[in-house]
Automatic annotation (TrEMBL):
PROSITE patterns: PROTEIN_KINASE_DOM. InterPro entries: ANXUR1/2-like, Kinase-like_dom_sf, Prot_kinase_dom, Ser-Thr/Tyr_kinase_cat_dom. GO terms for cellular component: plasma membrane; plasmodesma. Gene3D superfamilies: Phosphorylase Kinase, domain 1, Transferase(Phosphotransferase) domain 1. GO terms for molecular function: ATP binding; transmembrane receptor protein tyrosine kinase activity. Residues 42-327 form the Protein kinase domain. This is Protein kinase domain-containing protein.
Length: 343
């Protein structure tokens, strides 16, 4: 296996490594020569984008046994000293977390490079880009959107309840949900993620001084009091569900929601394709996710189950309705706007 070959989550110390941290013990350390070769010396043609924190993202190509393996490479800004150190601190947090996580719906870390001014992280390649870009282009069927949401819910459920400690992602957004060659979703961007109590111990909220995030995805208690729990992610996921069905970013939809119910803002690509029974389950769990009161929000395990149920209702109805055309008679208003006003 490629990941095994590159020492995924395996200790490999090199002379170029000038410090001792936990990430050295958990993750493969690439030489700068490896990284330069994989990106053709950071060729601009290999440049993909800037991530949400201003880090340069490249498409790289690593070789093993005469086979090429495409990877994603994040490179901190090596010239701006203060910015570089801030970016590297965020990436170190991500590395330490990802080295401990194993789940098909979480991006896989391959390794890192820390060579003088160069701070670089290597991830698995996700060839289909972000959920955000697909929603903007209106390329996804309703069933595929549901399947992607279920995959994301599974990944979040694992973070909250499947690891040794509860992990709060704190940056759930369609642009941070990546899609692989099989259109399977992968949660990425763990820079802001926090580890909480050991699973099964009494949960305690984490209090933070700064609250980075995007309005509409940030839970009220997080914005107002800096309180972080697993329900912080649940709120953000509820906004993602809304975007998935409407096909637009939340900020683009605020005016429409002031005047129209959700049903009238459904993406035209999927309008008439949603089974009413499926819609009832979907919109109910979405509304519960964005409840103003954190304790009233469901767990991600419950969200996962409800979305799977919604998908089964859709599939059952599609078997008997060969035309796959449905009419939604309900009129749902979202309480996200109320949450923002109260904030």
């Amino acid at each position: 296996m490629f990941l095994k070959y590159w020492g995924f989550c395996h200790s490999k110390r090199t002379s170029s490594c000038q410090y001792t941290t936990r990430i050295e013990e958990l993750c493969h350390h690439f030489s700068l020569a490896d990284i330069r070769k994989s990106t053709n010396n950071f060729d601009r043609k290999r440049f993909i984008d800037l991530d949400g924190f201003g880090t340069n993202v490249y498409k790289g190509c690593l070789q093993h046994d005469d086979s090429d393996y495409t990877v994603i490479i994040k490179r901190c800004n090596k010239d701006a000293i203060g910015r570089r150190e801030r970016e590297w601190d965020l990436l170190k947090n991500e590395i330490e977390l990802l080295c401990q996580l194993r789940h098909p719906n979480i991006i896989s870390l391959i390794g890192f490079c820390n060579h003088k001014k160069e701070k670089i992280v290597v991830y698995e390649y996700t060839s289909n880009g972000s959920l955000c870009s697909h929603l903007q282009r209106g390329e996804l069927s309703w069933k595929k959107r549901l399947e992607i949401c279920i995959g994301v819910a599974r990944g979040l459920h694992y973070l909250h309840a499947g690891a040794k400690r509860t992990i709060v992602h704190r940056n759930i957004h369609p642009r941070n949900i990546l899609l692989d060659a099989n259109m399977e979703p992968k949660l990425s961007e763990f820079n802001l993620s926090l580890q909480g109590q050991r699973f099964m111990s009494k949960p305690k909220p984490i209090i933070v001084d700064t609250v980075p995030g995007v309005l509409g995805y940030m839970a009220p208690e997080y914005i107002i009091n800096g309180i972080v729990t697993d329900k912080t992610d649940v709120f953000s996921f509820g906004t993602v569900l809304l975007e998935v069905v409407c096909g637009r970013t939340y900020s683009d939809m605020i005016e429409e929601f002031l005047e129209k119910p959700v049903e009238e803002n459904i993406d035209l690509e999927i309008k008439g394709k949603i089974v009413p029974e499926c819609w009832k389950v979907f919109i109910d769990i979405m509304q519960r996710c964005v409840d103003y009161e954190a304790e009233e929000r469901p767990t991600m395990g419950e969200v996962e189950v409800q979305l799977e149920y919604a998908l089964s209702l859709q599939e059952q109805a599609d078997i008997t309705n060969i035309h796959h055309h449905y009419i939604l008679l309900s009129k749902t208003s979202t309480n996200l706007l109320l949450n923002i006003k109260e904030q």
